[in-house]
Amino acid sequence: MFTTERLVALASIGLAAGLTAIAAPASAADVTYERLLNAPNEPENWLMVHRDYNNSRHSPLAQINATNAKDLKPKFIFSIGGRATGGTLRGKEESTPLVDDGFMYVSDTWTRVMKFDVRSGDAAVPLWRYDPKIKQSRTNRGIAMYGNKILVSTNDMRMIALNRDSGEVIWEVDAKAPTDPVTGTPSPKTQGFTGAPVVVKTRGGKELVLQGESTGGQLGTRSWIGAWDVNDGKLAWRTFTIPAPGEPGSETWKDNHNAWRVGGGGVWQSASYDPASNLLYYGTGDAFPSFDPQFRPGDNLFTASTIALDADTGKIVWYFQETPNEHWDFDTPSPKMLYEVNINGETRKVVANFSRNGYYYTLDRNNGQFLRADQYQEKITWTKGIDPKTGKPIDYNPETPVQVYAGVGVMREKPGQESCPWWNGAPTFFPPTLDAKRMIAYVAGAEGCISSTTVKTPMDEKKDYVGLPPCCTEQGRVTAHGALWAMDLRTGKVVNKVTFQPPTESGMLSTDGGLLFTGHMTGKFAAYDESTLQELWSFNLGTPITAPPMTYSVNGKQYIAVVAGGAVGVRGAGLYQPSAFVAVFGL
Q1: Angle, alpha carbons 166-167-172 (nearest 5°)
Q2: Of the candidates 230, 193, 199, 198, which has an alpha carbon nearest to the alpha carbon of residue 212?
Q3: Tens digit of pLDDT for each residue in 455-474?
């Protein structure tokens, strides 16, 4: 049923690729929990999607720096797939390659995984290719490594462990949450994975691969987070982000037609993990339907929230909701970053993120205490501000089932109004980067507004929407530009910002070489000075870039790599051939 293609017929490409690159055994040391825990101490490798459990996406490599960045050149480019070779929907490549001791592992939109030998520095020699032959596709944001395994989650709801050396399947499980026969939820038809899995070893000694269900905001389902034993694929726990009646938080669904059954709360990014507290941190998506809050009166827990879960049990230990009864698709999937910072004279261990609602939230990561919300989007109209004590919008009214905030919500009886920021531009899946030495976080996305969003056809309270898309909304004209922000985490101030056209959806990489890297929808891949944000170098790959870059080194030489390909919503993007490839740059 499944195919693993052994690419051992290397004679025809051996001379061009350099046979010295495959002279040594095509394997590396097992990826232990200790190695993942100490990933910052292996600067040559990139062992997990956001590089470490803090979700920093920062590398200590410094050979490529602000002085010599102008000398960067493409070293090699290699194909990994794309829409032209399969899949069911238009694909956007959003995956981060992993590298361990000169071997690269990478997935494409259709969750086809390949292993390459990149030790020569001038070619990628393919070693194996695994195709799960998925039945549905949206995107894939990466894979995980643990022991001798590659952990793969598919959009048609399979969790798969591959042998890292051969690409052969070790175990595979159907990861769907079973449908309750009484309530009919979650939908068996609309569950899906898009984020990259993460592997941890818990305080109780469990070795678990973690993944969130991603589709809740788009299709009528009840999303969740799951954990499977990395050794055999057995389910350890599953925690829903939408509470059932009688569960904590269910009182925040105040409707009389069981809106919780299609509640949303998708989880489409990877967790951060604090071994000291044994807590996992996830951001959740908006409530379903995105633009009809009157269908789902109440705060709608645990949507648009940061949630902390006990890694052994999956129990929600604390939560913080950013936007109760959210109207504008302001979910909070941006990776939760962990660091220590002095706030009011006290060093605090925090979890923080850029939110789609325009604010940067800082919370105590042990108990979820709100510490600060700092505005990074220049124009915010949906609220008059954030209460410095509670962290809730100052115009939030706990006595009102449907929030009106600053009067620009999406309401059935009102015409559409301009709202800022634009929901699709403030950072979503495109991850930030954290330079903990300089205490600066960088993020790139869009800044702007949408002229109106109106409910064209309100959802019918008597209709069963399990497994269905909502109907219907009309979006207005977007006025937005791309932006790159630098935020001082000690003060909460934006210390620098540059703008460009069009917006970007790639994500960030920072290095000790004083550089930032990101991709653009125009195909431009660029390096920026970390202090001035001045563009120092760029190279156009000729296709949109919607995946975040990474870096690694082999034989003392540093390389920068990014996955490119996929159609995105900019002028002319549909004319690009939607292939997928990895581009690797060096000096």
Answers
A1: 130
A2: 193
A3: 888 888 888 888 888 877 88
Neighbour tally for 433: CB within 10 Å: 29
At 509, list the tokens. 């990489």
Which amino acid, 72?
A: L
The residue-averaged pLDDT of 99-119 equals 96
Q: What is the pLDDT of residues 472-530, one digit of tens each?
A: 788 888 899 999 999 999 999 999 999 999 889 999 999 999 999 999 989 999 999 99
What's the token pair of residue 478? 């977007």
Pseudo-torsion of CA 139, 144, 148, 153, nearest 10°?
-40
Cα torsion angle, 330, 331, 337, 339, sign: positive
Question: What φ, ψ does residue 343 adopt, rounded to 5°?
Answer: -125, 120
Residue 482's alpha-carbon distances to 377, 415, 433, in angstroms, are 11, 28, 17
Task: Give CA separation, 156 vs 214, 261, 313, 354, in Å.
Answer: 11, 21, 25, 29
Residue 88 has pLDDT above 70, yes or no: no
Give the residue carrying structure tokens 């702007």.
448
CB 224 within 8 A of CB 177: yes
Provide the edge-to-edge strand list for the sheet that holds 103-107: 3-6, 125-131, 113-117, 103-107, 98-100
H or E stretch covering 229: strand 224-229
Question: How long, in residues, is the chain?
Answer: 587
- Element holding 393 (H helix, E strand): none
3-586 homologous superfamily: Quinoprotein alcohol dehydrogenase-like superfamily (2.140.10.10)
C-alpha to C-alpha distances, 475 to 239, 417, 446, 455, 587, nearest whole angstrom? 33, 10, 17, 9, 45
CA pair distance 518, 527, nearest whole angstrom: 7
DSSP state of 147: B
Residue type, position 322, single letter: E
Query: H-helix or E-strand containing 11?
Result: helix 11-17
Q: Where are the domains of the chain?
A: 3-586
Q: How far is CA 416 from the centre of its chain?
A: 30
Of the candidates 196, 141, 61, the one whose C-alpha atom is nearest the C-alpha of residue 585 is 61
